[in-house]
Amino acid sequence: MKSAQTIALKPDEQSALDVLFAYELSGKRVFIVEATSNIFKEWYEDVREVRDFQNRVEILVSARYWRRWARRLQEFGFTREDARVLSLGTFGTDNAKTFLGVAEILTFDQPMVNLFAERRKQIQQKLDAMKLNIESPYNQAQLPDVRLVAAEANKRK
Amino acid sequence: MDDFRIVVPQDVVRRLRAQKISDAKIRRAVMTTLEELAKPTRPKPRSGETAVEYFRRIILDMSGGKPPALDEAFLKNGMTRGEYLALGEEEEKALWDKWHEEEWSTIEKKYGEGVDVRLKGSPRQKRRAKDSKGTREKRSNYRTQARRTKRA
Does residue A125 sit within a domain? Predict the structure, then answer.
């Protein structure tokens, strides 16, 4: 929106556009959570920026066990919403339901990135324990990398 | 699209039947191709164009060359683009947090414990998935009539 109005972008906003642009050029699939997509639905017809953005991304759909894993992630101190997003990174899929989990989650949320990095080992152990009791293909679930959008943008410069 | 029909040439139908390809498999193949075809085509970046320049160009093209007006209605509650853009960081965050919380509740109701995933997988993965149904590491697979050790 700001770029169309020629309003100066904040560093985070600039990074988000840089990453989206770079990922598109390299053919990477970019997903957003369904909650955000639903919010955008209201704007799809009237707001060109939203229409253009929605056409560039896919929706990460909640697969089996995402809710259970989100509850367990909350035990590590993540907020309810952060836990849901992180859980989708492990137990999320596309509309065709052809994969399980994503390679990386990009966020502006520094505390979430810090907490994930700090507790990653214990989170991994918890996931490994959960995987012992669930069936295929869910027992192949993996943790995603969780990084700041700005860090990803800098890496690509 | 409910009344959209595709007529498949008889020769193709005959060959599909000869190979015993199921209707479900044919339907999936057609849907995959159609979904690929339905993906919107997007303008490519020009040489040397930055991300901001690229996205700005796209939006301007969509708006007939002019930036969207700041007094244009933006949200259903009557907020204009200008008012939305003038929100402070905290106000904007509070708005998004509220919207997200409402949507997450809807999603939890919609999916419950989540949808089932069908991984295509490599032949090895398929073998492992099949094995996990109980055929792997069965004791009877290794048992023979012969004694393992001779006893004195």
Answer: yes
| Domain count along chain A | 1
Asked if residue A146 is part of any domain, the answer here is: yes
Which of A2, A39, A52 lies nearest to residue B103, judging by beta carbons? A39
CB–CB of A100 and B60 under 8 A? Answer: no
Chain B residues inside the 8 Å CB shell of A38: 103, 106-107
Cis peptide before A137 (omega within 30 of 0): yes
Tell whether the model's pLDDT for residue A44 goes beyond 70.
yes
Residues paired with B80 in a beta bridge:
B73
Please indicate, yes or no, if residue A4 is contained in any of the structural domains. no
Model confidence at B70, pLDDT cuts 50, 70, 90, reads confident
- Which structural domain, as residue segments, surrounds residue A97? 11-155
- Dump pLDDT digits (tens) for B87-130: 888 998 898 999 999 999 888 888 887 888 887 654 444 444 44
Chain A CB contacts of B73 under 8 Å are 46
Whether residues A2 and B85 touch (CB distance < 8 A) is answered with yes
Neighbours of A87 (CB within 10 A): 25
- Beta carbons of B75 and B84 less than 8 angstroms apart: yes
Q: What ipTM did this prediction achieve? A: 0.82
**CA–CA min distance B141, chain A (Å):** 23
Residue A1: inside a domain: no
Give which of B28, B70, B74, B107 to mutate to test A binding, by max A Cβ within 10 Å: B107
Q: Residue A34's closest CA among B35, B21, B115, B48?
A: B115
Nearest to A100 by CA among A139, A59, A147: A139
pTM exceeding the 0.80 threshold for the entire prediction? no
Contact across the interface for B70 and A5, Cβ inside 8 Å = yes
Separation CA B148–CA B130 (nearest Å)? 30
